[in-house]
User: Fold this.
Amino acid sequence: MSLTVKDIIDYTRSSVLDDTDSQKYLWENAELIFLLNRAYNEIFKLYGRKDQTTTAIVQIALLSNLGYYAIDSRILKIDSARLSTNTDYGALQRELESRLDAIVSDWRSLTGTPTKYCPGAYSNYLTVYPKFDATAEYVGSSDISFDSATKTISQTDGDFSDLTAGDQVVVTGSGVTANNTTFTVATVGTDSFTVSETVTDASNTSATIRKVRDTLLLSATVLPSSRFSTDDYDNATEITELRDDHIEGLTDGIAKRAFLKPDTYAYFPQKAEYHRGLFEEFKRQVKRDIILLHKPDHTRVIRSGTGIGY
Assistant:
């Protein structure tokens, strides 16, 4: 059975921090769990965990006439990207926006099926080139309404003929948070369509409706799927995304920061430095373990700083 959050916090408190008087703890559980998350992320980054399956992290709906998209904050690096529907295009080419600026005039306005992606558009966003055209993009001007009784979205003098049952559309700017989401088209009329999901009543909004034209499927290096909380301590949640022997060293990762707490009875910079050294050595061992795990049968080159042929 894997070690739990409670195991690590309790052991750190009793054997590393010598903080066992529950009536006057120097560090609250919330503090130690915050430090656990920081240490855990340090170890986790050494793993370089790949994800191709977690929908919320590695799938991005590509919309009509939109070239930039938010990247999940858990993504450390995008390793590759491909389209879900337009599979004949193969993997999209990774590109720099600065290079596109240099070689393609006004590339942000060009339309077609995306063939390139730029992961560094701006903080936590990527761009695609070219973007899909404006087919099935409906921009409201105080004329798009939502009817909860009939699950209908309508636009005065609108034309939704580009939609068909089963399409997905993304609504933004409706002024109602519940309506700013993804809907599945059920039936289509001329100036209205119904959806499968619940809508919230709203009249004459300036919402924008865009059809999902394809899905960008990422292969990414990611952070842990979630952060630990005090609930994980109370429920003795197992730590499952690291090997057990790679969990044990988290105690020093917690202590190296805990002993820098600006408190008369908790501030010990010498102890902090001591545990920092232990944690750095532990990280080197974790890195060696990972290299050995993935080491090919035939040794080729000595990896710098490890002494291990790879």
About this structure: Residues 67 and 131 are 5 Å apart (CA to CA).
